[in-house]
Amino acid sequence: MSIGNIVEPANVAVVGCGHVGLVMSAGLAELGHRVTGIDRSAELVAKLSQGKVHVHEPGLPELVGKGLASGMLAFTTEYDAAVPDADFIFVAVDTPATLGGAADLRNIRAATRSIASSLNGKSPVIVNKSTSPIGTGETIAGILQSTLAKPHRVPRIVSNPEFLRQGRAVHDFFNPDRIVIGARVPEDAHAVAELYSALSGPMIITDLRTAEMIKYVANSFLATRVSFINEISRLCEPLGVDVDEVVSGIALDARIGSHFFNPGIGFGGSCLPKDVAALRYMGETFGVATPVLSAVQEVNQAQRTGAVRRLRARLGTLENKTIAVWGVTFKGETEDARESPAVDVIGLLRNEGAVIRSYDPVRPDSAPEEVRKTYCSSALEAARDADALAILTDWPEFLKVPLVQVKSVMRGSVLFDGRNALSKAEAESVGFAYLAVGRVSRSPRRRETDE
Ligand SMILES: NC(=O)c1ccc[n+]([C@@H]2O[C@H](COP(=O)([O-])OP(=O)(O)OC[C@H]3O[C@@H](n4cnc5c(N)ncnc54)[C@H](O)[C@@H]3O)[C@@H](O)[C@H]2O)c1
Question: Which end of the chain is more exposed for a tag (fewer CB within 10 A), N or C?
Fold first, then answer.
């Protein structure tokens, strides 16, 4: 990792030490800033202070360890321990979806109130990294103004949306495609840009609302690509066309590319589903129809039910059938099972009476308890005596398990490859009845995980 010299080290507080906040904290410390991560979870802070990292991100434990050892990185539950001396305060708290689809801003509001009560009359730049609806920057400013007893200055609010990919977050921090910074006054945006001066990558300096909108549009577009190719995959099957070959044929077009074009059981995770829902909700709030976003959600849901339908059709019934499931997280290389399509499919299968034996390399704690109860110790163990095997997450580890061995421990021979990860020819050569998503023939297309 080669990092240039920073212009001037700053004191930085980062509120929220989850995926985004922790990578930010450790990354900024590596860039030479003095960073304190604040989290309301005492358990998490205790673990992080000992260098125990709770998220599965290559390179992150090393980076956190280095920051702690050098004294450039610390963690606390106390706002008072970090906010009064901070030049910059990043807010990276979770903004989950509410039932109606709107982003839940309670954590942002609570964090802002806590920041306000620890400011001590200072006026640091407050940088929102949480994905939150257009207008949140103004909401934060409003809370600060109404909470501060004697507001000395107009709050300095900046929006700096995060674009990291889980599983590659450290790489993405140091090699950003772009850094988007929106502010009410350009000086504040430039001050934040200075923090990142050691990184290369284009900077987009804009206003608060545009920065907030860029994040939602980026995620909604990625989700749209996934649903688009999933819809096409369904059309490919009756037409006798292999969707993977179609993707290969169009992805080389520089205007199209290959990312987020993987047919499968749909997108999930803590970002895309909630961000599409929140953008739709903003449309509803302003009376603007968003039929494309509605279709994206509809197709995404149908991919889950389609997986179950195919297994049911092949097995006759799911009642009392044992289904081995490989993969519980929402994608490979992460410990995150929030909004995981695999979890949804497991729930639907169980609802029809199937018995699940699951395996995931990280045994995610974030999966519901009824899913965690189905965890087996290995991929082969999960497959033992199963009537069917369903591959629901694209963990590279699954490609290394010899299919002959898998077939030999199973009772049945149905294999549903919900990520188009295996070779159809190879699976069929060992006797599997191979089902995939929009695939009708020939060779596998090896691909990168990017959802
Ligand atoms: N995870 C991603 O890949 C990703 C990528 C881009 C953007 N985002 C966005 O970044 C934000 C954070 O996401 P995340 O995945 O890091 O969430 P997360 O759930 O992993 O972590 C959030 C952390 O914030 C803490 N927290 C919540 N309220 C707090 C408060 N008032 N004071 C102190 N700590 C508080 C929680 O305890 C938790 O540790 C979300 O808005 C998300 O949409 C996430």
Answer: N
